[in-house]
Each structure stands twice: as structure tokens, then as C-alpha cells.
Design brief:
There is one protein chain. α2 runs antiparallel to α3 (81-115), α6 (177-207) runs antiparallel to α7 (212-246) and α7 (212-246) packs antiparallel against α11 (324-351). The chain has 15 helices and 8 strands. The chain has one domain (3-260, 302-439). A hairpin with a 3-residue loop joins β7 and β8. Helix content is 70%, strand content 6%. The chain has 459 residues and is mainly α.
Length: 459
């Protein structure tokens, strides 16, 4: 692998790892806010207990997410300084605002919520976690605006004196049509990630003799997962149509569609040559790709060959075809694994309806369900970023143009190994903390003053 490939791999590792925690933070913050409001309105103790538990999970996840997010932003200076120098005026405001939201808004009010418990009026205390939830959503919207610029560059012009990109309209950057489509899709995926974590923990505790409140936790997680799955499908359908308009090569690569086709089919399974050539075996659903990309079963979908010729004439010689096998299979794995996660959660709801208990085998398997949305989200981002190649910012800047000048293989390999080791340690710490929190009783335990002093609780 050359320096460019290694730098791309390093950025992918950092980004994918960071994104394990982002959707969890978004979903857990919203869930904690909803539970706190439910406790405020109903005065039911189980909502108080669940609020505190979900809040503890949020604090642990948020801490890891902030640390890994910082590294991701520093990557623009470490490995992609040419890109940062050219587009810094466009990216700068979004990264700065997102950083302020994460550090000052979310972190501050999360601390107020945790340490202000039993020290603030209930309504004011509930407002702090609501602000945290709003902050996570705003943070996602802002950072997605930066990514959406890479998918569909808008609201900029080239400065004739410096030759750098200059931001012309911050509002237009935020309300990029790709961002407006990707944002709800991201939130829906986040709901699946957080819901499945709560479902897995609740099922694990029920299998090991948990409290009745753990049943509420498991069913709440299942409902969030199912709802998130339905919304992911709806928002994904809209996002696919938007991407077809701004990046037709990406959707053609998702199907390995080499020839422009009217009433294009969608392949459930296909085999082709390792270099990504046209498939020689395919199991297809007629007209489905045309429906996914335009909503019209008889619509014409541009093929890879025609788009390659079009881009060569427009942008100059070179290959504008992404890695077809990666695009093809990441797209299907994203959809298939996401559907599986929602189906499993739905099956749990059906099995436990009207007070019924779940089958022991189901409870044994459910602790693994958080892996499914995490994998679906990961494959979704792999598809989004790799199928945009060779563009860094679509149509105006290639990946090779953004790398830091003078970067060496040894430097990239050393930093990649360092990040991998540190992130591996963080993963172990996060898992152990979540497991520790999950083993604790949800309801506060009475102190036994007749024996020995009870130490202050550690959360």
C-alpha cells in the first residue's frame, strides 16, 4: 500500500471507530430525556431508575465519543492538510460549531444533569438532559453538513487571489439537499443502535434473574429499534433518490449496473470478477433499482460505462469508477443487516406481548443484537465514502489532491498502529464499564447501617 492508501485506511479506521459511539450518544440522550419527562409526569419509580441507568450509559459512551471525535478532526491536519488548506474556510465553521456543541453545550449540561440530581427542581433537572439531547442532534446536523459538502459541494466559490475555496452562504451549506436527506436517515440509524443496546442489556439481565424493570427496558429498546428500522427504510428511500441526482455513479456502482437500463433491476446476489467487472451471475428483482432511484419502475438509470465516458469528457482522462465489489456488497449488507436487527426486535415484542416471557434461546441471543445496527451503520458509511471515489469533494477535488505533502509511509503506519492500540484499549474499557453498569441493580438499595459504613456510590 502506498502513502495515499495507508492514509485513507487510517482515516477509515478512526472514523468507523468513532461512529460506533456517535449514534449511541444521540439515541441514549433522547431516551434518557424521554424517560426523565415520563418520570416527571407520572412519578413512577421505574422511570426514575431507567433514566439514571440510561444516563450512566450515555456518560460512558459520550466520553469515548468525544475523545475519538477529536482525533478524527485532527486527521484533517495530520493526513489531509492540502484538503484542509483548500477547503478550510468552508469546513472551519462547521467543525468549530460542532466542537463547541460537544464540549460546551452537551458536556456542561450532561454534568449538570448528573451532579444536579436531587439538588435542582425536578423540572429544571429534566431540562438539562433535554438540552443534552437537543445538542447531540444539532451536533449531528452540523457535522453532516460538512460531509454533505463532500458529497454535493454547494455554497462556495474560488477566491481569485488565494485560489482557495471560500464559503459564500453558511445557511446554504447547512441546508444542502444531501444533508436534509442524510440527517433524518442518520437519526433513524442512531435510534436502532441505541434501542438495540437497551434491548440487549435488558434481555441479558432477564436471563440472569433481573428485576421487572428490566422487562420494561428490553421492550422499550425493542420498540425504539423497530421504530428506528421503519424510519431508516423511509428516509433511506428518499436519500437514495437524492444521491442518484447528485452522484449517479454511486448508485450505478451499488448495483454494478454497467449499461444504461430502462426499468433497471436490483440484484439480491451477484458474482463477478475480482476486479469489479460486470457480473456474470445475478439474482434480480425486475424494475426495483429504477423504483429505488427515481420512484418510477420504468425510469432509465445511467450505467457505469456511460457515466465513465461522460466524466472523462467533463473532467479529463482517468478512471471515475469506484471499487464496484465494495460498493455492491456494502450497500446490500447495510440493508440486510438493518432489516435483520429490526426483525429480531419485532419478534421479541411479539413473543413478550401481554406479559408473556421470551424463549430462553432468544434471551441468550439478544445480547448480541447491538452488533447488528453497528454493522449496518458501518457498511452504510463504507458505501457512502468509498462509492464517491475518486473524489474527495465530488466533481471538484480528487482524493490524491488532498493528502499532506511530504507524508511518509513510516509516519502513517506508526500513527495507525498507535491509534489501533489506543482504540483497542478504549473499546475494552467501554465494554467493561457497560457490563459493570448493567450488572448493578436498577433500583437504589437500602443501606445497612447496622454493619459497616456504606461508601459513596460510584457511577
Amino acid at each position: 500500500m502506498d502513502v495515499l492508501d495507508l492514509t485513507r485506511l487510517q482515516f477509515a479506521v478512526v472514523t468507523i471507530y468513532h461512529y460506533f459511539f456517535v449514534p449511541l450518544s444521540i439515541s441514549l440522550a433522547a431516551t434518557a430525556a424521554g424517560l426523565e419527562i415520563a418520570w416527571l409526569r407520572t412519578k413512577k419509580e421505574r422511570y426514575r431508575d431507567l433514566t439514571l441507568f440510561v444516563g450512566k450509559l450515555l456518560i460512558v459512551t459520550f466520553a469515548v465519543g468525544v475523545v475519538t471525535g477529536l482525533v478524527q478532526e485532527f486527521q484533517f491536519g495530520m493526513g489531509w492538510s492540502a484538503f484542509a488548506r483548500f477547503y478550510g474556510d468552508v469546513f472551519g465553521p462547521t467543525l468549530a460549531i460542532e466542537g463547541m456543541l460537544a464540549f460546551f453545550l452537551e458536556a456542561t449540561f450532561l454534568a449538570l444533569w448528573y451532579f444536579g440530581r436531587d439538588r435542582m427542581p425536578r423540572a429544571l433537572h429534566a431540562a438539562t438532559i433535554v438540552i443534552v439531547a437537543i445538542g447531540t442532534v444539532l451536533s449531528a446536523f452540523i457535522i453532516l453538513a460538512a460531509n454533505s459538502f463532500m458529497q454535493n459541494p454547494v455554497a462556495y466559490s474560488l477566491d481569485p487571489e488565494t485560489g482557495r475555496a471560500r464559503l459564500d452562504d453558511f445557511g446554504a451549506l447547512l441546508f444542502n439537499e444531501v444533508n436534509l436527506a442524510a440527517f433524518p436517515h442518520t437519526l433513524a440509524g442512531a435510534a436502532m443502535a441505541g434501542g438495540s443496546l437497551l434491548l440487549g442489556i435488558g434481555a441479558w439481565r432477564l436471563r440472569h434473574g433481573g428485576e421487572p424493570t428490566h422487562r420494561t427496558l428490553a421492550r422499550l429498546g425493542a420498540w425504539i429499534t423497530v421504530t428506528g428500522g421503519a424510519l431508516t427504510a423511509l428516509t433511506g428511500d428518499h436519500l437514495g433518490k437524492v444521491i442518484t441526482e447528485v452522484q449517479p455513479m454511486k448508485m450505478a456502482a451499488a448495483e454494478a449496473l454497467y449499461r444504461t437500463t430502462t426499468g433497471a433491476p436490483f440484484s439480491l446476489f451477484a458474482l463477478g470478477s475480482p476486479d469489479g467487472g460486470e457480473p456474470f451471475l445475478s439474482i434480480e428483482i425486475p424494475h426495483l433499482l429504477s423504483i429505488l432511484t427515481t420512484g418510477d419502475p420504468g425510469a432509465t438509470v445511467q450505467g457505469i460505462d456511460d457515466l465513465q465516458a461522460q466524466y472523462t469528457a467533463q473532467y479529463g482522462p482517468g478512471s471515475y469508477i469506484p471499487m464496484i465489489p465494495v460498493a455492491f456488497w456494502s450497500f446490500r449488507l447495510m440493508i440486510g443487516i438493518g432489516v435483520l436487527a429490526a426483525a429480531v426486535a419485532g419478534y421479541y415484542l411479539w413473543r413478550t406481548r401481554r406479559g408473556r416471557t421470551a424463549h430462553p434461546l432468544l434471551l441468550r441471543l439478544l445480547p448480541l443484537i447491538p452488533v447488528l445496527p453497528a454493522a449496518a451503520n458501518t457498511f452504510g458509511w463504507i458505501f457512502t465514502e468509498t462509492a464517491r471515489q475518486p473524489w474527495l469533494a465530488f466533481g471538484i477535488s480528487r482524493v490524491a489532491d488532498g493528502i499532506t505533502p511530504g507524508l511518509t509511509r513510516a509516519e502513517v503506519i506508526a500513527s495507525l498502529i498507535g491509534f489501533t492500540v489506543v482504540y483497542g484499549i478504549l473499546a475494552v474499557v467501554w465494554v467493561r464499564l457497560v457490563r459493570h453498569l448493567s450488572r448493578q441493580p436498577l433500583a437504589p438499595q437500602p443501606a445497612d447501617t447496622a454493619t459497616e459504613p456504606v461508601p459513596a456510590p460510584v457511577y
